[in-house]
Amino acid sequence: MPAWVDAALVLLALTSLLLLGSSRLVACVRIVAFQGLLLGGLTLAAHAHELSLRTLLLAAGVTVLKGAGFPWLLGRVLREADVRREVEPFVSYNASLLIGAVVLAGSLWLSARLPLPAPPISMLMVPVSLFVTLAGLFLIVSRRKALTQVLGYIVLENGIYVFGVGLVEGTPMVLEMGVLLDVFVAVFVMGIAIFHISREFDHIDADQLTALRDWVS
Amino acid sequence: MIAALVLVPALAGALAYFIQSDSARRALLLVAATAHVVLTLLCWIPSLAPAAGDWLVLDALGRLFLSITAVLFLTAAIYSVGYLRRESRAVRRDFEEGLLFSNAPEPTFTACLLLFLAAMTLVTVSHRFGLLWVAIEATTLASAPLIYFHRHHRSLEATWKYLLICSVGIALALLGNFFLAVAASDHGGMPIPLVVGDLVRGASHLHVPWLKAAFALFLVGYGTKMGLAPLHTWLPDAHSEAPSVASALLSGALLNCAFLGILRLQQVCVAAGQGPFGQNLLVAFGLLSMAVAAVFIPRQADFKRMLAYSSVEHMGILALGVGVGGAASFGALLHAVNHSLTKAMLFLVAGNILTFYRSKSTGDVRGVLHALPVSGGLWLLGFLAITGSPPFGPFLSELTILKGALDLGRGGVALAYLFFLAVIFVGMADVVLRMAQGLPETGAAEPTAGESLLAILPPAALATLVLLLGLYVPPFLRSAIQAAAGGLG
Lengths: 217, 489
Description:
The complex is a heterodimer of chains A (217) and B (489).
Chain A: H1 2-20, H2 25-46, H3 53-81, H4 93-112, H5 125-142, H6 146-165, H7 173-201
Helix pairs in contact in A: 1-2, 1-4, 1-5, 2-3, 2-6, 3-7, 4-5, 5-6, 6-7
Chain B: H1 2-18, H2 22-42, E1 51-52, E2 56-57, H3 60-86, E3 92-93, E4 100-103, H4 106-125, H5 129-147, E5 150-151, H6 153-184, H7 196-201, H8 208-226, H9 234-241, H10 244-271, H11 275-296, H12 303-324, H13 327-357, H14 368-371, H15 373-386, H16 393-407, H17 411-436, H18 453-471, H19 475-485
Antiparallel strand pairs in B: 1-2, 3-4, 4-5
């Protein structure tokens, strides 16, 4: 079902843009949760012509982990740390959106020049994957709150996952599950770390973690 | 048997989490570490040539890195028994800023140590690139709690940077894996499975641009974990804030494992006739890492940070050696052995110094030779070894790399290499000699804590090995390293 694949990909790109312009952390967590659901749907739609057990399991795993698991975990962290919004990011929201649009155009341009040996399921696959990955990276470096950085990590991973969706036939399922498990544990451990940060410092601003450096003046 | 190598530490780790008795848990740690070394030794017997399907395979390269990890872990385990005994559980005062903190529970620490070993072992026996990725990410996750052993804000900061920077780096390596899958799908019909052996055999069918892109992402991704400049920023923080046992393992074993991830793809690139592409990148990253270390080591104010930057330097030397190729590849792998043993020893000795002086500042520590004669002696010896002075092992391997570079007509590379080595030698000598000589200031603790047998024997054993390797490389090790370097161009 190419139409559904395209729809999911377009929505993924739009939600990433939305994320770049959102300041309320609760909204950000919800957007990322929605992306998780989209990824589950994308997995199914991309393999709709030959639905196998492994595709179903993978889609279920992605949906449950990224659509429900992460949002629940991060929502808890949010309540514990008692923060509502990302105040004064390094790059303002308007500028972030503008940069996002430029990156999106750049991804489209770049992917037109990447010769794939076999045609992908959708022509949008590579550009959207690149864009979502870069948007995640941008979130990590341009935001202050530790929680937003974790969201950025999840978005980055989502972008990489989009690239892999078309290729899953080649890899054994145990590995797919292993990757999912690793990402889950990573986010889990980061969540615990944020919890400790909020308890230790009374804030979760990663940019204020500056005690360790060379040549303390 | 190869599965047992991974399962023994993994199960022991799970078990250690639930054992309440300290002595029983420490005994379990020692038993598991010894069992792991014995199993590793068995892998050296050719008739036992171990493989479990195409999932877990132990080739010459993996066996070399596995052996380094096993030996280091056993020494670190013995040291950690003494270390955990001296670490009080109560809330105590931090010596740098005077704030109050306590340690992470010991069961968690021991469990994470063992799981860390299991993950590193899995890295060395993975021939599927996907499994390799899973294993390397698992090493990050298992080692993060080790860095946060002393629960105060500095170690938390270090843990956070480590987790985030390495996870992002390793995520990029995952993208590299997918690129590799694209490169392997060009085989006119059936895609080549992403297994090192299959890819090397089918290398001529790989799609070259995607293979190159995959290598670049591998280098950036796993290079972050390995500590190659400019992606090394997490490394000094994590190594200086982690307890010395964990620093020794991070530096001696973990960085090698990440390097192995890059080497695996380099094997494929060489087979595909794209060796020079990867080699040039490795030389560039290697020289840059050495340059960064040469800038930050002189006048370094924290001696554990100094050791961390020295690790950046030596990872640079490894990358440079493999990048130059030929005899230098052999030298680089020999250097991996020498560096791991020496650096682990130095971190363990640094732990002794830290316990005695209660300071990581190079300005506060004076007269180590006077106050801690054995540790002080080992500290000087370790400094001589790590900076490549004869007759220690690193001298031999660094010389091999230099000779390899000159043989291949890479004069410029050799010159830069020598220059950085010289700067680092002078910089480290300044710091280390000032710490070792003179008389300790009054007010330091009694010299009983730092010189217990459990604190001295492990580093002393490593120092002996480093010295022996400098005088004589046994033929079995030489041929093993030659076999391992064979596929690296």
